[in-house]
Amino acid sequence: MKTNTMFLSKIPQIFSYDELLTIIKQEVEVLPSIQFIMNQKDNDNNIAILKFKKKEEALRVEKKIKSTKIFNRKLNVQDYKPSKKSFTKNNSQNVKNTKTHLQRDANTKDKNFLDHERSKKKKKFVSGVKITNKIFDHAKITETADLVKEKSSKAPIKPKHQLFCNNKKKK
């Protein structure tokens, strides 16, 4: 019987030997002989050659490998190459400008966020108790006179103008 070889030339350095074995074990009963060959032209490209006894097994494994999420994800990352246009003199300046622009945005966002946090601390109220100091470690808590009256006499508080009117009548 002739051995059927399958070239995974489109998978440069994606799967390790162990990863390939685990994928193949799911599909094939008898494990094939696996060889990793380095390309002479590109040192980055490893090609896996799998030798199967049955052609069906080779096709099944090839389908399985190409359908894995890892294969697609890693292949997309490796295939991406920036266009040559982006390295011209004109565009390199544009890239610099966008970087500074992005940095400026980031700085203003941080500044705005800090200002927002500071304003929160200044205007913080906890259940009718005012926190007047900016720093919470040394917070001075002041209760208003209205709250003290409310605690002592559990009756509803009258508006201030009515209180003054009543005082005048009693005198």
Terminal CA distance reads: 122 Å
What percent of residues adopt helix (DSSP H or I)? 40-55%
Q: Can you write the helix and strand succession as a string?
A: EHEEHHHEEEHH
| DSSP strand count | 6
Count, helices: 6
Overall CATH architecture of the largest domain: 2-Layer Sandwich
Give the overall pLDDT as a whole number. Answer: 56
Q: Based on CA inertia axes, which overall geometry fits?
A: elongated
Q: What is the CATH C level class of the largest domain, in words?
A: Alpha Beta
> Major sheet, described briefly?
3 strands, antiparallel
Q: How big a fraction of the residues is strand?
A: 5-15%
CATH fold-level name of the largest domain: Alpha-Beta Plaits
Our Rg estimate from Cα atoms comes to 37 Å
GO molecular function, one term: RNA binding
Protein name: RRM domain-containing protein
InterPro entries: Nucleotide-bd_a/b_plait_sf, RBD_domain_sf, RRM_dom
Organism: Anaeramoeba flamelloides
